[in-house]
Design goal:
By secondary structure, the chain is mainly alpha-helical. The protein has helices spanning about 40, 50-60, 70-75, 80-90, 120-125, 215-225, 225-230, 235-250, 255-265, 275-285, 325-335, and strands at about 95-100, 110-115, 305-310, 315-320. The chain is rod-shaped, with a radius of gyration of 55 Å.
Length: about 350
């Protein structure tokens, strides 16, 4: 019997390859919204499964996404402790880098850098290529500037032509005509030097504060002059304007400017760091009470009659002029003869 030869094609293979056991991939084409993750991360031997999944999730996020512990814990069922431990694992193996920076507003923010291939990044940094940039080579030959003809020398600066001893010199037709010269230019007159400014006399503590001004100006001048007593009391203009009303209150309560200045500049601490704060504390804590109001003048007291010594009995009695007392005056009046 002849050998049977079949011409029918074999059965079509299934789309899914079946094996005796294990994993079988069903791959579909993804036109968009997919991320390429290296096997060095997904099959890492030392990372935990939480760290591997979290690393793949972070690589799929766009730039600027929040990947702090609180945001990730609100998104996944894992707690903050497990997420924090996974982030530390990724940072230890080079897949994450967290850097703290200060913004222009003064806030501290954490910037997170995600590396999809940390080994390649480290090799590139070791090679000195910290960031890709265009290679700047020498300019092309066509772009180089044409040297052009050599510069022509001025006829006035050109060397004189060589002539033979027996030949008369010829007049050069290319020689430039003589220039017409005008009147000689006179140099500008220098202005006389200004007289020297006499040095400013040094002011003492008694006359440092200007007199005859308003209390507000006196207070501002007093605060500005404190640096003459101690260099650490150099105040900016903003602090002078802020402290001037408190000094004005001292002056209005009858305190002399010298006393105010001594109170503010005496017994300073050795480690003075904030002079404006110290002055504000002293102006508030050491503020003296206002002077009591002057009592109203009462009615004029009566004139006191002086004491006089009697010329008759030498007794003292009050009288505006010397003479006899009342007792000595009565006998004299009794001895006077009556008219007949």
């Amino acid at each position: 019997m002849a050998e049977q030869q079949l011409s029918a094609p074999p059965r079509a293979l299934s789309l899914v390859r079946r094996s005796a056991g294990g994993l079988t991939h069903v791959s579909e084409h993804q036109p968009a919204r997919y991320t390429i993750v290296g096997n060095h991360l997904t099959q890492h031997r030392e990372l935990s499964l939480t760290a591997i999944g979290l690393g793949a999730h972070i690589q799929s996020l766009p730039d600027g996404a929040q990947v702090d512990i609180r945001t990730l814990a609100a998104k996944f069922p894992e707690g903050r402790g497990r997420i924090a431990a996974a982030l530390r694992e990724l940072e230890q193996h080079g897949y994450l880098e967290r850097v703290r920076e200060r913004t222009s507003e003064g806030r501290i923010v954490t910037r997170t850098f995600s590396y999809n291939a940390p080994e390649i990044t480290r090799a590139r940094r070791r090679a000195g290529e910290t960031r890709p940039r265009e290679a700047v080579g020498p300019p092309a030959a066509s772009a180089r500037a044409d040297p052009g003809p050599p510069p022509r020398t001025s006829p006035a600066l050109a060397p004189p032509p060589r002539t033979d001893p027996g030949q008369a010199p010829r007049a050069s037709t290319d020689q430039a005509p003589p220039r017409r010269t005008g009147p000689p230019v006179q140099p500008p007159l220098r202005a006389p030097a200004p007289p020297p400014v006499p040095p400013r006399p040094r002011t003492t503590r008694a006359d440092a504060v200007p007199t005859g001004t308003t209390p507000a100006r006196t207070a501002a001048s007093l605060l500005a002059e404190l640096r003459r007593d101690d260099d650490r009391l150099l105040l900016p203009e903003r602090d002078v304007r802020r402290l001037a009303p408190a000094v004005t209150t001292w002056l209005e309560r009858g305190v002399a400017p010298g006393a105010v200045r001594h109170t503010l500049s005496a017994n300073l601490p050795p480690d003075l760091r904030h002079p404006a704060a110290l002055l504000a504390h002293r102006l508030t804590a050491l503020l003296p009470p206002p002077l009591p109001a002057a009592a109203r003048p009462g009615p004029p007291r009566p004139a006191v009659v002086p004491l006089q010594n009697c010329d008759g009995c030498d007794r003292a009695f009050r009288s505006p002029k010397p003479g006899l007392c009342r007792d000595c005056q009565e006998p004299e009046q009794g001895d006077t003869p009556t008219a007949a």
